[in-house]
Specification:
The structure is a single chain. This protein has 13 helices and 16 strands. By secondary structure, the chain is an alpha+beta fold. The chain has one domain. The strands form six sheets. It has a four-stranded antiparallel beta sheet with strand order 5-4-15-16, with no helix packed on it. Strands 7-6-14 form a three-stranded antiparallel beta sheet, with helices on one face. Strands 8-12-13 form a three-stranded antiparallel beta sheet, with no helix packed on it. β6 and β7 form a beta hairpin. The longest helix has 15 residues. The protein is globular, with a radius of gyration of 19 Å.
Length: 317
């Protein structure tokens, strides 16, 4: 019998996004890749692995495959509304990478918001009170969709660090994507952000095998994402580095609520500020504070010589 664990939209969302290969494919699509060859060149994935991931992403409804030439037969791979809706997750990954990751230093990336015409930084923003939010200001309560689900996992033959090992220079979010691309780490962070911080409680919350949990906690400690309290019985604590990852999980939860929540509603409801108003979390432009739409952003990337997509690209056709 499968172990039952706490319902969470993040759990289901990680079936799609808790995989570094899928994150590379998503990034390539947002930077302009359309043909299979485009994705192969931009991601560095083996053809067999890329084909396998596309089949899964199409089955999820994340991509669609469209014929654009009958002679010769050629297809393009386009993100559906579901795929494009992960844009805010990508922007929060980029925000974290710029502050804490190493890969962003290699590339000069500028985002322009066509809505106001300014170069901007994406910021986590509460549309209710029109202020930026952080993890210390957000509280939560169980929502109507809370419950228990079977701890089933999609098996993947993939080891951590796969992004750095590939011979490509176009990965904009190596460190941030390696965290989200390891679903165990994302589930551990989910537990810690909801006040579950001892080894046994985290194991019960996530259904992670003891040996895997030990390895992931050690790895997260080595990255300074968490630390063990001086009184070990009090469990693990988040660091400033992981606290800044909080908006990524908020956007992941928001996306999961939209596509995977139970009919009754979302498992969690978020509240913001001292007055605990319902938080409408968005990603906003740092200049005009308007929510960012993927169609209203252009990229300018100074790619190193000889890499794919070495020109200015729009985020979406």
């Amino acid at each position: 019998m499968a172990k039952l664990v706490r319902t969470c939209s993040i759990w289901r969302a990680l079936d799609v996004l808790g995989d570094s290969s899928n994150l590379l494919i998503s990034q390539a699509a947002m930077l302009g890749a359309r043909s299979f060859g485009d994705f192969e060149e931009a991601t560095g994935l083996r053809r067999s692995l890329l084909s396998d991931r596309f089949k899964k992403l199409i089955n999820f409804g994340y991509f669609e495959k469209k014929l654009y030439s009958e002679s010769p037969v050629r297809y393009k791979y386009l993100m559906t509304e579901m795929g494009l809706s992960t844009y805010w997750i990508s922007l929060m990954l980029l925000r974290w990478e710029r502050k804490w990751g190493d890969s962003a230093e290699r590339l000069n990336l500028r985002l322009t918001h066509t809505g106001c015409g300014e170069v901007f930084e994406p910021i986590p923003y509460c549309l209710t009170c029109k202020h930026e939010y952080n993890a210390f200001e957000v509280d939560w309560v169980e929502g109507p969709g809370v419950g228990m689900i079977a701890a089933t996992y999609i098996k993947r033959r993939q080891r951590r660090g796969a992004i750095e090992d590939r011979p490509l220079q176009t990965a904009l979010m190596i460190d941030a994507a390696n965290i989200l691309g390891d679903r165990w780490v994302a589930l551990i962070l989910r537990a810690l952000f909801t006040g579950i911080n001892t080894f046994e409680k985290i194991r019960e919350d996530s259904g992670i095998a003891t040996n895997i949990l030990s390895e992931r906690l050690n790895w997260m400690t080595s990255l300074d994402l968490i630390r063990l309290d001086a009184d070990a019985a009090r469990g693990y604590r988040l660091t400033r580095k992981s606290v800044d990852y909080f908006p990524v999980l908020v956007m992941l939860m928001k996306w999961g609520d939209k596509y995977f929540a139970a009919p009754e509603g979302a498992p969690l409801s978020l509240f913001h500020g001292e007055d605990r108003h319902p938080m409408e979390a968005v990603v906003a432009c740092s200049h005009c504070h308007q929510p960012i739409d993927i169609k209203d952003v252009t990229y300018q990337v100074d790619w190193p010589e000889g890499v794919p997509f070495a020109s200015a690209l729009t985020a979406h056709e």
